[in-house]
Amino acid sequence: MARRIPILEVKDLVTHYGEVEILHGVSFRVHHGGILAVIGGSGCGKSTLMKHAIGLLKPTSGSIKFWGESLAEMSEDELSALQERFGVSFQSGGLFNSMTLYDNIALPLRERRDLDEEIISAIVRTKLSLVGLGDALYKNPSELSGGMKKRAGFARALALDPEIVFFDEPSAGLDPITAAGLDDLILSLRRTLGVAVVVITHELESIKKVADRVLMLDRGDVIFMGPLDDALVSDEPRVKQFFARRPDETITVR
Ligand SMILES: Nc1ncnc2c1ncn2[C@@H]1O[C@H](COP(=O)(O)OP(=O)(O)OP(=O)(O)O)[C@@H](O)[C@H]1O
Ligand SMILES: [Mg+2]
How does pLDDT run across 38-52, given as a tens digit for each residue? Predict the structure, then answer.
C-alpha cells in the first residue's frame, strides 16, 4: 500500500557546521496529510534540520527518504524532480529583490513548467490571493512589510502545487489575525489537497490548532516525538515548560 510509505522519513540524522555537531541523531516521519510541528528553543537546530531534510545541506550521517527514496542516492535529475514535489518557505523569506512579487512567484513555474503566460498569470494571482497579497502583484519585495514578505514566501512555496511543504516560522512577526489566516491556509491545504506540512513554529496557539504531531528538539536532541495530545500532557519537564510557557529558571531578572 503506497499510502503507508511515509512521504518523508528521517533516521538518525547527525549534522555539523564545521567541527561543531548540531543535530545528534534526529529521527521522524511525515505521512500523507500529516502536519508536524517542529519546536524548541532558539538555536536548538530547527532550521538546520529543515535545510538538511530538503537536501540543501549534506548530513554527516543518517538517512533522509522521500517516498521511500534515499536523498543521498539520488542523481541531480532525480533531486531536481523531487524538488518539484515539495515547497519551502525559509525563515528569512528568500525572495529576489530585483523582481516584482509577480515574477518571484512565477519564477518556479517558468523554470519548471511549460505554460503559457496566461496560465502562469492565473496561477500567480491565485497563490497571492490565498495569502492576501492579491493587490501587491507588482510590488518589489523591498516595498513590502516583514509580514507581507513572509506571506509572499508562502505563496512561492505553493507555486508548483507541492505534496509536502516546509515552513520555517511562517507566522513570526505577523499580526495575530494574519497568523490565524495562515493556520487556516495550512489546514485547508491538508483538507483539500492532502498536502503534508512540516512547520517550525514557536506559536503555541498555532501548534494547538494545526499540528497532529510534535517534534521537540533541545540542543540538537529529540526530547519529544509523538501526537500533539501526548505532548500537551507530557511529563518531560522541558516539554511541559514549553507548553506552560514558563520561563527558564536559569534566566533571572533582578
Ligand atoms: N551556517 C552556519 N554556520 C555555523 N553555525 C551555524 C550556521 N547556521 C546555524 N548555525 C548554528 O547552529 C545552531 C542551530 O541553528 P539553527 O538556525 O538551526 O537554530 P534554530 O533552532 O532554527 O533557531 P531559531 O529558533 O532562532 O531560528 C546554532 O548554534 C547556530 O549558531
Ligand atoms: Mg531557525
Answer: 999 999 999 999 999
> How far is ligand 1, taken at its centre, from the CA of residue 254, in Å?
29
Phi and psi torsions of 60, nearest 5° = -70, -45
Q: Domain range holding 199? A: 2-85+162-244
State how far Cα 171 lies from the chain centre.
11
Within a domain: 20: yes
What pLDDT is stored for residue 237 in this prediction? 93
Cβ atoms of 214 and 224 within 8 Å: the answer is: yes
Decide whether any atom of ligand 1 lies within 6 Å of the 42 Cβ: yes
The domain that holds 200 is classified in CATH as 3.40.50.300
- Which residue owns the Cα nearest ligand 1 atom 29? 43
The residue behind cell 495562515 is 182
Distances from the Cα of 92 to the Cα of 13, 21, 128, 170, 237, angstroms: 24, 23, 18, 10, 31
Contact status, residue 178 vs residue 132, Cβ threshold 8 Å: yes
Q: pLDDT by residue (tens digit) across 137-190?
A: 999 999 988 888 888 988 999 999 999 999 998 887 788 888 888 898 889 888
Cβ atoms of 94 and 153 within 8 Å: the answer is yes
Q: Nearest CA to 216 among 239, 196, 234? A: 239
